[in-house]
Amino acid sequence: MKSQRTKPYIIAPLILFLFVTTAAGPAWGKDVWRNVDRVVAIGDIHGDYEQYLTILRDSGLIDARLNWAGGKTHLVQMGDLPDRGPDSLKIMQHMKKLQKQARREKGYVHALIGNHEIMNVDGDLRYVHPGEFTILANKKSAKRQKDYITSMIEYLDNNHPEAALVGESRRPALEKIYPLGYVEHRRLWAPRGEFFEWIKSHNTAIKINRTLFVHGGLSPHQTPLPLKEINTRVRRYLRTFDEDTIVGNGGPLWYRGLALNPAEVELEPLKNMLAYYDVDTIVIAHTPTPSRIVPRLGRRVIQADVGLSRAYTGGRASLVIEGDKYYAIHRGTTVTIPAEDSGKPAYLATLSAIDENDRQQVEE
C-alpha cells in the first residue's frame, strides 16, 4: 500500500511545510523488557478522555488526582490514541505526565504507534473529530486560517486551474474544510510539532517477558522481522516519509488476520512466528471486539481493542498480565482469561453476567 501522503485528496500537508521545518532524528529506545511483575494493556482510545481515565482507575494505575499509582507496573497503550473523539490533546498531555511519573517509580508507560497516529502525521484527517480543531483555536487562529487558505488558493490555482472555482471564489469552501484550529492541529502533528516528536520516539512492537504487543498484528505468513528492524523502519518513515511496506496494509499497524482469519489459516504459521520471537502470546488492538478482551487460538492471540471510545461501544476493559497469568479487568471486576479455547464460552458468559449486573444496577 502506498503511504497516505501520496493520495490525491491530501494537498494540505504540502502547504503546511511552508509553516514548519524539518525535524531532528528520533529518540531511540529499547524494545524488549524482562522480569516485569505486572503489565496492563489498554486498546484504542480514540479521543475519549473520560473512558481513558475510567480504564486507568479500574486498573489501579492512577489516584484521585490523576497521578501515577501503578508503582512498577508497565502500562501498554496499544496505539490509536487520536481520532473519532475530541480529546486527543488532553489524553496525550496526561499520558506524557504519566510517563515521567511512572519512570520515577520504576514503572513504564509504553504508547505504541497505531495506524491513526501515522494517518494524522500523513495528513489523512478523515476521522478527526471537529472538537479536535475547536479546542486548539485561539485569538490568532483567524489570521492563521486566512494565511493558510491564501496559500492553498495559490497552490490550487497553479496546479488545478481546471476546477469550477478559482481564486478567491474557492475561499468559502476551503474555510469549511480547514476550520479555525486546523493550522494549530497540523502544526502539532507536523515535524517538530509536539505530537509528532512524541509519537516519533515510540515503538511499534515491543516484547515484555513472554508477550508481544503490537497495534494491528504481525502477519505470520511473512518472513518475521526483528523487533528492532520493525521499530527502526517505522521511525525512519516518520523521519523521511519514504515509501515503506512496513506502514502498509500487511504491516504491523494494519494487519487484521490474527483477529479475523480462521484457525486453519493462522494457527500453524502463528506458532512458528511466536517461536521466532520466543513468546507465548501476541496482544493486538486495531480490530474492535464486542466490548470485551477476547482470547483466540488457545490464547496465543489476545484482542485488546474493546471499543473503549464512546464513538464505538464504550467498552470498559483492560488486559492484565502477572507472571504467566492473564486477566481481564472487566467493568472493574478481575476475570481469569482461559489458556484453552474450551474455557472461552464460560469466560465470555462471566463477562456477560457482569454486564447484565451493571445494567440492572443502573436501571434500579
Q: Which strands sit side by side, in order, in the main sheet?
A: 1-5-6-7-9-8
CATH architecture descriptor text of the largest domain: 4-Layer Sandwich
Structural class: alpha/beta
Percent range for helical residues?
25-40%
What do we call the CATH topology of the largest domain? Answer: Purple Acid Phosphatase, chain A, domain 2
Distance between the termini: 51 Å
How does this structure look, described?
The protein has 364 residues and is α/β, with parallel strands linked by helices. The protein folds into 2 domains: 266 residues, Purple Acid Phosphatase, chain A, domain 2; 43 residues, no CATH class. The protein is 38% helix and 13% strand. The protein has 13 helices and 12 strands. The strands form 2 sheets. A 6-stranded mixed β-sheet has the order 1-5-6-7-9-8. It is globular, with a radius of gyration of 21 Å. The termini are far apart. The N terminus is likely disordered.
